[in-house]
Structure formats: structure tokens, C-alpha cells
Amino acid sequence: MAGKKQKETKPTIPYHHGDLRPALITAARSLLQNQGIDVLSLRSIASAIGVTHMAPYAHFKGKQELLQAVAASGYDELAANMIRVQKKQTKVTGRMLAYHYGVEYIQFAIANPNLYRLMMNQIDLEKKISLESPDREIWVSSQRPFRLLYTAFANERVNKKLAHARALGAWATVHGIASLAIEGHLVLPEGMDVIQLFKTTVSSSVDMG
Questions:
Q1: What is the pTM (predicted TM-score) of this model?
Q2: What are the residues whose beta carbons fall under 8 Å from the beta carbon of 89, sequence distance 6 or more?
Q3: Residues 6+ apart with CB under 8 A from 97
Q4: Which of 52, 56, 82, 158 has the highest CB neighbour number within 10 Å of its CB?
Q5: Domain HTH tetR-type spans what residues (predicted)?
Q6: Rounded Cα gap, residues 123 and 199, in angstroms
């Protein structure tokens, strides 16, 4: 009589202590992109990268901390993309630079719809954040794209209040277009894509050349 077949077990992958947290965030983002937020849990991302189910708790107290870390990584990536745009457009400043930032912002949201929704749902701008606050990481990261946008307008040598107002208006525009696009609520004119819509929207205030 043949012996009972042993159940195959998925081998665990050894991670250096400093490598596990970014690996967990990467796994979470992959699950989020491909399967949606409902499948995200500390257990599911541990299984995805082959570590014990308790391993993520060394870095996250629970699911909420994981979600905030994933959202923060999205803001950091968006800011990095915007900085790359700035380096490519070395002769572009002010409103025109803000326009290029806006294009990058919308493209990022459309390419990462589930991540973008999560990013927007994980910030509370009215909440007071201290140096010891568990929300500090997401708050700091969420400010980076806006600070770049603000700086673009501030470089037009206007006062801080006006630069802030213009940055808010620009952010509201790109966020509105991005959100409507990823939710399928934009019915565009024939032959026009989302970026062309954005260009048309801002053309009255930006010299498009």
C-alpha cells in the first residue's frame, strides 16, 4: 500500500530585516492593482512573498498601518515621477511646469486606479500630526506632490497666498479629471483623450506654445 502523500508546503523566503518591509509593500501593491483592496491583509501579502503569517507584524500593527504604508509609497512614487518631469523640462517653469506635473498626475492615477483611490482615502488634512504620530508617514508623503506644484507657482514670484491658491486650483483640476476618468464618468468628445481634455481645460491660463 502506497504511503500517504505528504502535503506540499510553500517554502518561506528569507529576508534581511531591512528588506522585508519594502517587499511587503510591493506585494501589497501588486495584489491591490490586480485584485483590489478587498483581498489585502497581512496574511495575504505574507503568503504572496512566502514568509510566515506573523512576519508582517514586525513592521505593521495591523491592516490600517499596511494600507497607509502602501498609500505613502504611491505618493512617493508620484512625487518622484514629477521630479523626473522637472529634470527633463529644465527650461520650463511656473504654470507650464505645473501643466506637465498635471499630465504626470493624471497618467499616474489612470495607470494605478486602485492605488490612487487608496491614496485619497488615507489622508486627513485636518488631523493634527505629531513627530510620534503613526499617521506621520502618510501625511509627509501626501504633501510631496502638492509641494512640487506649489513651488512651480511660487517660482512665478507671486506671494505665498496666491501661489498656494493657484496650486490648490491646479490640484483640484487634475484630481477631478483623474477621479472622473478612473471611475468611468468621463464621456469625451470623439477623438479626444483625457490628456487632451486637460490641455483644453488649462489652455486659457497656460501658454501651450
A1: 0.84
A2: 96, 97, 100
A3: 85, 86, 89, 152, 155
A4: 56
A5: 18-78
A6: 28
Percent of the chain with pLDDT over 90: 61
Which residue carries 506654445 as its cell? 209
Q: pLDDT grade, residue 126 (50/70/90)?
A: low
Helical residues (DSSP H) of the chain, grouped into ranges: 17-35, 42-49, 63-88, 94-111, 113-121, 136-154, 160-182, 194-202
The separation between the first and the last C-alpha atoms of the chain, rounded to the nearest angstrom, is 82
Residue 35 contacts residue 60 (beta carbons within 8 Å): no
Alpha-carbon gap, residue 106 to 158, rounded angstroms = 26
Average pLDDT over residues 121-144: 72
Q: What is the pLDDT of residues 62-84, one digit of tens each?
A: 898 999 999 999 999 999 999 99
Count of C-beta atoms within a 10 Å radius of residue 127: 9
CA 193 to chain centroid, in Å, comes to 22
